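Handoff note, outgoing to incoming analyst
You'll be picking up this chain. Sequence as last confirmed:
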Amino acid sequence: MQIPRLRSATPTLVRVAIDTHGCRLNRFESDAMAEALGRAGHAWVDDVGGADVYVLNSCTITHQADADARQAVRRARRDNPDVVVVLTGCLANADPEAAAALPGVDAVLGNADKARLAELLARLPPLAERRTGPALVSVSALTRRMPFTALRPALSTRRARVQLKVQDGCDHRCAFCIVPAVRGGSRSLPVVEVVEQARRLVAAGVPELVLTGIHLGAYGRDLRPRVRLAELVAALLPHLGSARLRLSSIDPHEVEDELLGLLAEHPRSICPHLHLPVQAADDGVLRRMRRGHTAGTFAELVERAVRLVPGIAIGSDVIVGHPGEDEAAFERGEALLRSLPLSYLHVFQFSPRRGTPAFTMDDAAPAAERARRGARLRAYSRAAVAARHRNAAGRGADVVVHRSPRRDGHYEALTDDYLRVELPPEAAAWAGQRRTVVLADDGRRATLVPVSSEGAPETRSEGGG
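Most recent structure output, in case you need it:
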């Protein structure tokens, strides 16, 4: 089927609800689409029941993610039978024709076409025609060196911590991952444009910028001249003002000492936090996964980062039950992870994904065994987080306060070293701001520090985890 291109048209003003599944990059793109629609005169709404258009920004990392998207479409159509359903995101790219054939879907928009959402809305036919005709599809082909999608970060987001997309796509082919097929090749936003976007966010009062990409460690390899991630971070430092910078996931083999040096030298500007997705801590499993590091190099990096960056928090992703992981391999990996000063783990059970090399591997652990291994590592992670809270008792902390309270009126905040803490309702005056707090005896609750006293408490103790 030929995928038609959209033509320019004058849009009818509509109310749009955007639902985001999946990764930080999708969150960035949803916020950017919402703001772009606002510039076009449309209105963003929370509730699909009050929307004219429902945009589902989908994930397709697992078959369960696909099922979640189908369920979300059914739910939207149930809650508002007349709503226009636009499916975008990675599920749209995985199989555009299948996405267009989903019951209730009126239009399909590819990842590389998200900047053209307002244009798509202008071309949607009347309701009666949509119900009888095929879905409108705009999914650009993904090439190895396609342009960087021109979505500007949202300045009016209701988030205190704003994603800043600097890289998209991936040139690696990890055995378990479908992302390269639905995001295209690795491509980077030039440094000068990243700096300009960061300056706009800082001027708008954003207290934390999160550098985000599908493969952040590959930033700048496609630029001419080539640029390294550490060089981008160094270029951003003079423009952060009172904001702080956080790095999202970086593959372990792509963390250079220069980057660690920047974290150590600029503790007020760069959060002392790294997320290093190891995926497996056994060399045999890593080879089956086609990862770019070994268990030993991961361990050496963690220990080096703790040595070089005072107070750093280090988290990781782990997949349990991947093909090749027998009980002995799991136990070796678990022992290594427990021996390291890690702050937390995000644990996933292997889910065979059609279209990936691992889908055809026949020696994955049984589902029950995956669940058992996952439960063991999650228990370890909970214990590690609890220990961090206990060790943080009584110290000062640099936090960004969430913009909206919880249902009980309390606020949540995130410390620079990635601890989630609770603030009393009086923190409403600090919502969406970067402030200093003092943690209570449990290390989970915090009290406010008067503005004139900020910076006085010691914010972190030495050492990792």
